[in-house]
């Protein structure tokens, strides 16, 4: 409980502390506190996660962002002002001159001259009393000395003084000459001679005038000379922290995952930058206009407003940039990038097109162009570097070379056309009468190759034809006598004979001849399927429909055997490319096998499963007999699950099914797992 | 009394067929080549021809084309050629039925009977309104009666409805789903199998060899259709 309270307190504190801009410090503190509070329990972890969430929410909070922004502006202004103070202090030499006197000297600068000149005028007019009265209204007193007595401290050297001067007064000497001869306190004051007007100031400044005001300001500046540095540094730090926070928080929004693009993110970045810069330029113009208006207050106000606007815009601009940086690949969202990419693509396309054009052009033309190109390059080279004799030789060489190159290109084209025609399967003969050397040999080889292929194809066709012929003929020649055998066996069976043995024998005869018939049919089908001598018309087939049709055909037979058929198939229709009749034959064979070999009163599963691009039709049943054969053996011809061969069937069913499935671009696998017999048909989904 | 011509180059087969078709109603004629068959047809009034295709002198196809030039007599081809292309060729050239060797004797006699009935009894073929016809099947919707080669077949109401639907649109393939929707007026949720079972029963009742239907064809992987026949 205590921990919880602590946490809450901490959460409440967060805002205030956050405002001070020392968030990181706080999180470090909280971590420490947490470690103190408890071990590394799961609760603690949960809380930590919450904490992270809270931090995120701080980053995403708009109010907090605005707060941080104002804080930044204020700290920036503070920084600037204090920097100005520092600058003035440096200018006045307050840092090097470590006394308050310096401030005083600065304060009185210019005033001494004025006082001295005014006093001289009054003295020249012969009214020292007016001069004294004039000085009464200031904080200064004036002593008059001969210039040569500047460093004298004797009282007697002072010719005239307006009043008493204190020990700690600060004095400044002004050199002046009198314009005419006057007498002061009885002694003559000559012109043509340098005099010093020593103006001394009362450090208490009893009279409020310009000097005292100056002095006050300067003393302030002087006193704050070190504080200004500190404030400046602190404000700068705060400003940087706020700025960093704003940059970090840019793009985060409460209640939304990840980085949220701003309104401007769709704009190209360089366009955005241009807009930003032009706004800045307009603002700069306004500032310049205002600053020439001549009225200080207006200037200051205008300057402040512009500063704030410019600062705001700059920060927003940088935040936008930060969002783009966080989103990644910001350079792709620039006009320049788009233009360059477009140009690059265009160039690539153009180059490709040219290359294709070059490649697509006839061989002779290509060669000619290449040859002429080389000639032109060489010609330029000769013009630049070689002499006339060489040029003549070169021309002769080219004149000889051109027909040779053209001849080679022509021959190559002939050979190319021939090989292309052969690749297409045409019977093509290359004319080698005008060829020489290796080319002639190549052409003759091509001719021989073409003859060989033609021969092989013809032989292959012949053998295919023979095979088909054989199958049909054998089938006919076998079927005709078999028909007679079956029919007469049937007739004998129906004949009433006194000898019971004859009935029994004829029964056997009929049964076996019927088996022979089935065997013959299957054998023919198997041989046709394996040699691919079957017409396959692939069309769209719906697996579900075929399945229900198969069920319809076999339900009665299954019920008779006590087999329960269970069908699993997806609700949506699955289309495959298959020849419906052949596929049905496959189903027929497999279901027939199930009826023959499945354990009576067991369940048979027919399922359709879609696996991405393939559909699997799976037949599953429990075998009546122990399957002591491997799946591979079962796929072979004349193999049956029961070795004893006491069952009907001839072992061709699975082989036919496999061949037919493969003819329809499908696959058939057999899986034997103990007594579980599984056949998987796999087809590609349309 | 029907006159039937049996034509095969294999004497044993002709003899066997003669034994099977030994019926008081049938008078049997035999021929061993296509030529002989044509001669017999010239001479006698034949009501049905059972003919092999592969025969010396003149093969079955040629003989059949010749027969079709002058007569409309039903011809059943009886052959060892079991390729689909052979069947299609035979039926297009003008055969009425096609039996592959080795055949089942009962099937032969059933098909002979069917063809004879259609030829002799229902030859007029004037179609009454409300009567749908497809080969030997006639469906009279006013009487709710179905006949196969003139003999009444008893169907359950569902089977009747399915048959009617298929016969109303000969040549059109109906998927089990569509049939279910039309007959049961309901959406099938895996009950398409029922349709398949009903159609299997229909075929058992209407076809001589349900595995090789003549009228109610199975389009594997797509649906069912009633064969479109030009009469």
Q: Which second-level CATH architecture of the domain at 536-684 in chain A applies?
A: 2-Layer Sandwich
Got a strand count of chain B? 11
- Radius of gyration of chain A using CA atoms only: 56 Å
Number of domains of chain B: 2
Tally of alpha and pi helices of chain B:
8
CATH superfamily of the largest domain in chain B: Response regulator
Largest sheet of chain A: 5 strands, mixed
Task: Count every beta strand of chain A, where a strand is a DSSP E run of 2 or more residues.
Answer: 13
State mean pLDDT of chain B (0 to 100 scale).
84
CATH class of the domain at 536-684 in chain A: Alpha Beta
Order of neighbouring strands in the sheet with most strands of chain B: 2-1-3-4-5
Level-2 CATH architecture of the largest domain in chain B: 3-Layer(aba) Sandwich
Quaternary status: heterodimer
CATH topology of the domain at 536-684 in chain A: Heat Shock Protein 90
Written overview of the protein:
The complex is a heterodimer of chains A (686) and B (231). Chain A is of the alpha+beta class and 686 residues long. Among the domains of chain A are: 59 residues, no CATH class; 124 residues, no CATH class; 61 residues; 83 residues, Helix Hairpins (Orthogonal Bundle), CATH 1.10.287; 149 residues, Heat Shock Protein 90. In chain A, 64% of the residues lie in helices and 11% in strands. A 5-stranded mixed beta sheet of chain A has the order 8-10-11-13-12. Chain A has a 4-stranded antiparallel beta sheet with strand order 2-1-6-3. A two-stranded antiparallel ribbon of chain A has the order 4-5. In chain A, a hairpin with a 2-residue loop joins strand 4 and strand 5. In chain A, helix 14 runs parallel beside helix 15 and helix 18 packs antiparallel against helix 20. Chain A is elongated and about 195 Å long. The two termini of chain A are 64 Å apart. The relative contact order of chain A is 0.04. The N terminus of chain A is likely disordered. With 231 residues, chain B is of the alpha/beta class. Chain B has 2 domains: 119 residues, 3-Layer(aba) Sandwich (Rossmann fold), CATH 3.40.50.2300; 96 residues, Orthogonal Bundle (Arc Repressor Mutant, subunit A), CATH 1.10.10. Chain B is 40% helix and 21% strand. Chain B has 8 helices and 11 strands. In chain B, the strands form 3 sheets. A 5-stranded parallel beta sheet of chain B has the order 2-1-3-4-5, sandwiched between helices. In chain B, helix 2 packs parallel to helix 3, helix 6 crosses helix 8 and helix 7 packs across helix 8. The two termini of chain B are 25 Å apart. The model of chain B has no long low-confidence stretch (mean pLDDT 84). The chains are: A alpha+beta (686), B alpha/beta (231). At the A-B interface, helix 15, helix 16, strand 7, helix 17 and helix 18 of A face helix 1 and helix 8 of B.
